[in-house]
């Protein structure tokens, strides 16, 4: 990964989603010090009828390798895996991953409503009539974990508190004011056990990541961050088809990514985890192997996730709970991971115990309602 960038994020009322794609892409290319003419691979999802075709045309690139994989929030980790494979196989030299969304501005302007459900066709027709909203699916999974393992709502709230503490160090975060466990618990109930602050924010924004072959990396403005191992997995389409609400597909994608990278969870310096809801952070930490199954509540309840003083800093930019969440947020995880490994995170920079920069990080995206997962292990040379 040789170039990463965000577009303007947060409250962006005067730009289209296409414009946010372009802004992020231009900034990522500038970050790498490369011209768009080197881009021969392109990956995009979520915008337009033919996402990679329409967005590539808007950006003025003509790729000979494309990917439009769409598996929700994990899309971008899966695409990064595909791009790395394509480059290794010689099918592309420089692959641009780009995303942009005006999810917040669209609701504000009345161009769309909140996403209560992904639809009522196919397998979902058997759940949608019974009130299985998107949030309710995650809430039921969280409640199952609480019943099985004694996880408490206060422990889940600690995830939101720590995300906000990390966001307070990030000038680009949408919400930076610290919150307490009481603040989280006293908020309006959205879907039991989730109150408002257990749920991600809705923002506008875009992100881009440029992956390139090793010979290009020598000419880049910054040192590259290497893709060491990846894994992907899809689990279920409906809750009735989900074997265990307390196990996410990251249990498979993480095992594959760590195995292919030749590292262990204990070797990782920080983690960027998809956090549309507090429970996602908790259960993904378990499934990636940072703690045993059922011990996630105790793990997150001891301030381990903080940039300052945490044993395993998680969502160092504030995550989807506090920094930004314009829809499929997986690409933002990769941007933050690269910035951390390059030592460009400012006040929120993670440091090893010896004061040095982190050497290894992991980004794990989740799609749908724990339907899919993509995990990428990244490292410095």
UniProtKB/TrEMBL annotation:
Protein name: Thiolase C-terminal domain-containing protein
Pfam families listed in its UniProt record: Thiolase_C_1
InterPro entries, alphabetized: Thiolase, Thiolase-like, Thiolase_C_2
Ranges where the Thiolase C-terminal domain occurs: 231-380
PANTHER family the record matches: ACETYL-COA C-ACETYLTRANSFERASE, NON-SPECIFIC LIPID-TRANSFER PROTEIN-LIKE 2
